[in-house]
Design brief:
The protein is about 35% helix and about 25% strand. The chain is α+β, with helices and mostly antiparallel strands. It has one domain. The termini are close together.
């Protein structure tokens, strides 16, 4: 069974307009790394498409699986990142 980090990566590979970041360190993370999704589609659209993707893959409690996502502005794009999800600890 795939872990949530791998499912997020698969989502980015299968869905146009998303780029997977396996090693993002967001605000107040003090060097810790987590997974993130870079997009210019907007956070609400990204979350909606990710929720639908995860639901279709059989994830029941998506909110619990993702934890508390955060965002950072990257100029023309935004990164939606998941501070408690990393490729190593998934």
């Amino acid at each position: 069974m795939q872990g949530i980090a791998e499912l997020i990566e698969e989502f980015c590979e299968c869905t146009e307009g998303y780029y997977f970041r396996p090693d993002y360190s967001g605000r107040f993370m003090y060097g810790r790394k987590c997974v993130g999704i870079v997009t210019d589609k907007g956070v609400a659209v990204a979350m909606g498409e990710l929720y639908e993707f995860l639901h279709n893959r059989g994830i029941v409690n998506i909110t619990k699986a993702l934890g508390s996502p955060a965002t950072d502005d990257m100029g023309l794009k935004t990164i939606l990142y998941f501070p408690y999800i990393s490729k190593a600890s998934d």
